[in-house]
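Checklist before submission:
- one chain only
- standard amino acids only
- sequence pasted in full

Submission:
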Amino acid sequence: MLLNGKIRAFDLKSSNGEASSKLIETWTNKDYELTVVSCQTGQIDETWQSAGSLTITPNGKASTIITLVCECGW
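Returned file contents:
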């Protein structure tokens, strides 16, 4: 992910593995924690639509929440 002009790599800390219709993942590195929350909102042919949020928390600082609307497919 590009943050503050630098490419940052993250490791997966936890995931519910899409056990339900809501995906929750936490990713970390030495400077940040990312939480991704996503829920499928639709499907058309071979594409899936989702909505959710990305929460970015720098160590020792306030979080930033970004609302996401996404589409992926084969």
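Reviewer check: Residues 2-73 form one domain.
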